[in-house]
Amino acid sequence: MYDELKKLAREHGTPLFIIDHDIIRSNCRIFRENLPSVQIYYAVKANSNQKIIKTVFNEGLSFDVASYNEFMQVYEYIKDFKEKDQDDYVWDKIIFSNTIKDIETLKKIKRYLPLVTYDNIEELKKIKAHCGTAGLILRLKVPDTGSQVEMSSKFGAEPQDAAALIKSAFEMGLNVEGLSFHVGSQCTVNDNYISALAITGEIFNDARKKGYGLKILDIGGGFPVPYDANVPDFGTLARVIDAEFRRIFPEDTELIAEPGRFIVATAAVLVSEIIGKNRREGKIFYHINDGVYHTFSGIVYDHWVPNFTAFKEGKKEICAVVGPTCDSFDKVSLSSHLPGNLDIGDLLYTENIGAYSIASSTRFNGFDGAKIFHKNKISS
Ligand SMILES: Cc1ncc(COP(=O)(O)O)c(C=O)c1O
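Above: inputs. Below: predicted complex with pyridoxal-5'-phosphate.
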């Protein structure tokens, strides 16, 4: 890998974000093999690069979109379908998983039969007024403690409010198709899924008893990526989910999931370059040409801890790695174990950086961010 990364960096310049589409395809297949009865909706927000969407589309996955723009990125591949096939595709394979949608978005998607989530009564009224064609998924608040990114402080109805929110929807003439949850991103606590299945199972079965025809359980994202050796095995988690789901939910329930990180995190490597070197209070500061306003943006909101490896060997010490902008906040790592003998022009690489990275890169301070190189992309 070393030689290939160096060669690509020489040819294309740095910072260089290398996406391996073989790994994306392999991640899709691993997910499918471990949870064969689940319909997989790729959460586009994790990495909305158009060529990734195409690869995932070709793999036959469905899509979780957070906005109308993300919807249009997927629509690109169905725009030439006949109208009926387009409508079927949107209904069968796209979910608008953002529990809050602005009125403009609702108006624009009304002409399809979109599947949308909600978690409060005001959203329900808005959907009724502007997108009465929608099928609904009620998102529930579930335990997310221990996940890298917690979700339940912003999203999900309290379980005790679920029955009323389902009843209100049906009384408005809307259709609740099912329930959803998100246990938090990079969830390394399998018990969070077990609790979430128990909470939603009770609500689902109660609604069925009352005669509401709920059909779908959406188990969201959160599936952990092996950033380090302590991350639990996905196969074990998949078996736990499958067993609990079968134990709790009626046999005819459709199970869907919205993995983002799992599909793309391991599929990208970033090669960055040292553009400055300084010693501050005894510690070496390597200034590199990418930072928290660019490909390392996930450090801020994804709470991600990046890894760095040098191509050059040398005696290692604790170093700081900082970004190229004039902002002192632009510190990527204050404790990276790197050779102390690196020079300006030397390269570093960072693995497993495919999720929540370029998706939120800015042009702050006029820096463009990383160039993107696609490896093993199948054209067509
Ligand atoms: C509603 C929803 N679904 C799915 C995801 C993807 O989660 P992950 O990347 O942890 O799989 C997110 C992430 O923010 C989300 O908000």
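The pocket of pyridoxal-5'-phosphate is lined by residues 43, 45-46, 64, 97, 182, 185, 220-223, 258-262 (CB under 6 Å).
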